[in-house]
Design brief:
single chain, alpha/beta, Rossmann fold, Dehydroquinate synthase-like, alpha domain, 7-stranded mixed sheet, 13 helices, about 45% helix, binds nicotinamide-adenine-dinucleotide, binds zinc ion
Amino acid sequence: MSPHVLEVHTRSAQVSRILIAPGLLSSLDAIVAEACPGASRLVVVSSPQVWGLHGAAVRHGLGVADREEFAPVLVPDGEKAKTMATLGRIHDALVVRGIDRKAVLVVVGGGVIGDMAGFAAASYLRGIRLVHVPTTVVAQTDSAIGGKVGVNHRLGKNLLGAFHQPALVAVDPTVLTTLSRRELRAGLYEVVKYGVIASPSLFTRCAETMDALLDGSPSALLPVITDCCAIKADVVTKDEREDGLRRILNFGHTIGHALEAVTNYRLLRHGEAVAYGMKAASAIAVARGTWSATEHAELVRLLDHMGPLPAIGGLDVDAILAATRRDKKVVAGTLHFVLPTRIGDTTIATDVDEPQVRVGLAEIGLA
Ligand SMILES: NC(=O)c1ccc[n+]([C@@H]2O[C@H](COP(=O)([O-])OP(=O)(O)OC[C@H]3O[C@@H](n4cnc5c(N)ncnc54)[C@H](O)[C@@H]3O)[C@@H](O)[C@H]2O)c1
Ligand SMILES: [Zn+2]
């Protein structure tokens, strides 16, 4: 099967190519060579967990299965490990191995490892070429595309980073079969988000095939992942630096981020917080009269069908309201809310007041 090819065009990189196909890992050496001509060598960065599951396939795909000296740089993943300290370990390995400017960093993993190793590629020798091999739904549909790389600061998420467009994003949906059900579902909430913000047909496909998607069926996942990549590629091509259009990707994230923050990033997976955030934001849209109650009900029905979200009943509403005001999306003191106007289209509201936010929170049981 020849891969689906998408391109991201930005000022900072000529073109960044996304290839999507089941089994793509097996031809990694050829596609990396084509995307990164003249590479002096490849350095692979991954986590022990991901490498344990998919390292053999990646080694095979890169044609180094029988070269014992070929060793990846392995660092821990998960949000707690997304720090300057872990980034420093990647830098150390690059320096010790004498990696030069013509080398290519290939990162294999979820969004955490992708953002972190991407930042290492952006900063080492002022930038070496980067290839993403994303292994979670979040990474395949979102974090590996668009060039945002970085780590967390002790006082806030993703506060340290850069834009560094990958030369190639190699998406192989078969790697998702090893994800836990919860991790898979958390990623699928963001897939639903793409449908609501940009594509009625994707939304309908999600509704029609959700059970197969939740089972991790690669044939069900392939078309929806391809749609999400196409939407993200298009948005980033039009607005790399999030001056305008790219903000629509934050649908569900204003309240979602606040929920993550007040629960210390422990209770909810990011996608689960976004699911709550989408329910809340869309209730705000209905209350403001800019979205139909019928479509809102359709979204809620789909999210509820996906399974129960972790209970958040007892959370402190005032703390959540305060956290929304600290969000990175606050520009010059104005809170930005992405609100649907119909399935497939949104508007950005800068005048959502506190009573309206409370309406949104009431929708998710927080009153
Ligand atoms: N750069 C961007 O534009 C962007 C966009 C969205 C999210 N992000 C970032 O992405 C991160 C979240 O990414 P994530 O949800 O992928 O989390 P993650 O990278 O922490 O991965 C989640 C877990 O899944 C495991 N895992 C990864 N691939 C696996 C596989 N194939 N099988 C089994 N287990 C596997 C990992 O070891 C980890 O424990 C956040 O830090 C977020 O800030 C960045
Ligand atoms: Zn998100």
